[in-house]
Amino acid sequence: MDWDTLKNQWQTGGGEALDREQAAAIVAAARERSETLHRRVRGRDRLETIVALLLAPFFAVVAVIEGRQGLWITVIGCAVLVAACIYIPLKLRGARRLLPRADAASGLLAYLRGERRALEAQVKLARGVLRWYLAPIAVGVLLVFVGIQGASLASLYYALAVLGISAAIYFANLLAVARQFEPRLNEIESELQSLGEAG
């Protein structure tokens, strides 16, 4: 059964008078429309978390080694990177936990409201990626490099490369918002309005 048929059933049934099977089918159809996006979010978070958990101990070891040589700028850079490697997975997890589960008992409106809240959190993450993700990593890697290399032309080129990569990642996130998250958010708003919910 397609989404429009199920939605009409929900509307004609008043949202409450449907039997358990019909309610489950309607919520499952709503979930199916979002599942591709959910899979992308979970896959991205899994990859980011694995990388962060592998890099955190590496940078901690580098900090100890460089600290013994008195390279304190590098140690500070490594400390920033270790903190980022801990913080980033926690931040992703917090937003990911908002993704709703298809639960017939909670009903279609509750599911769509939860989906809207979860996608708004993902949009906020993507738009704020410069602050919570890119800036700490950029500062950390620049401090590590400058601490080892010193203030040199190579450090300037490295800084420009880091800024360029950061800008590319930032704009890729904005593009993901425009192409993936905002269209689905607009669909959800339309679905909620068609089901009788204002705003």
Give an overview of the whole structure.
By secondary structure, the chain is mainly α. It has six helices and no strands. The two termini are 27 Å apart. It is elongated.
**Average of pLDDT:** 86
- The share of residues in helices is over 70%
- Main β sheet profile: none
Beta-strand share of residues: under 5%
Globally, the shape reads elongated
- Helix count equals 6
Secondary-structure element string: HHHHHH
* Number of E-type strands: 0
Residue ranges: pLDDT <50 for 5 or more in a row?
A: none
Which radius of gyration do the C-alpha atoms yield? 23 Å
Secondary structure category: mainly alpha
Query: How widely separated are the two ends?
Result: 27 Å
Question: What's the short story on this structure?
Answer:
This protein is mostly helical and 199 residues long. It has helices spanning 3-12, 20-68, 72-96, 108-127, 129-149, 153-194. It has six helices and no strands.
